[in-house]
Amino acid sequence: MQKTILITGGGRGIGAATARLLAQQGHAICINYSSNQATAQAVVKDIQAAGGQAWCVAADVSQADQVQALFAFVDRECPPLYALVNNAGIVAPYARVEDMDVARFQRVFATNVMGSFMCAQAALKRMSTRHGGAGGSIVNLSTAFVKTGAPGMAVDYAASKSAIETFTIGLAREVAAEGVRVNAVRPGLIDTEIHAAAGDADRANKAKDFVPMKRAGRAEEVAQAIAWLVSDAASYSTGAVVDVSGGV
Question: Which of 33, 82, 94, 157 is an active site residue?
Answer without folding.
Answer: 157
